[in-house]
Amino acid sequence: FGIATDENFVITTTNRKEITEDNFSDLVQDGVTLYLLQSVDQMLLSATKERIDFLPHYDTLVKSGMYEYYASEGQNPLPFALAELIDNSLSATSRNTDIRSIQIKLLFDDSQGKPAVAVIDNGRGMTSKQLNNWAVYRLSKFTRQGDFESDHSGYVRPLPVPRSLNSDISYFGVGGKQAVFFVGQSARMISKPADSQDVHELVLSKEDF
């Protein structure tokens, strides 16, 4: 790697957790991406990329007909899909101490690409690991690896308030990926954790998925 004998360096995960002798077995798994840096908080010189591979859970087949269920009950599935798309934002902003902002934009300007639904919030952000786990369809507790972080990790359900939306709306039965691919052909999630300088981006196409 071209490291001089008198040069200090650290090895970290993509979430900037330093690899040490004590946590090596927990953080270093087969296929994990690592950074070789001069310091834990060093600015990355260029973007990094990693591919997400996983074995789908059996629920993928068992519960894949959710939309047919809603249609058969005479309900329009679109509101359920849109509700699912803002669930992460509701969770991410639940602990905001200042203004809680969630914007839903419908973009139809052909000069900017294909039409899109954009959900933008000022929440705490997601780490690369949380984005990775969001991409895994029906991530099961039986298939989780070390250093697992839920996309709702640290979330505490707020007290019920009349005429307001909390998170936990996933009981509608529409998974995040099902919702995305019901509305469109691809998903792009861009997030910056509140305590990190790194910006993480996840791109998931229906064809690849």
UniProtKB/TrEMBL annotation:
<protein>
    <submittedName>
        <fullName>SMHD1 protein</fullName>
    </submittedName>
</protein>
<dbReference type="Pfam" id="PF13589">
    <property type="entry name" value="HATPase_c_3"/>
</dbReference>
<dbReference type="InterPro" id="IPR036890">
    <property type="entry name" value="HATPase_C_sf"/>
</dbReference>
<dbReference type="GO" id="GO:0006302">
    <property type="term" value="P:double-strand break repair"/>
</dbReference>
<dbReference type="InterPro" id="IPR038892">
    <property type="entry name" value="SMCHD1"/>
</dbReference>
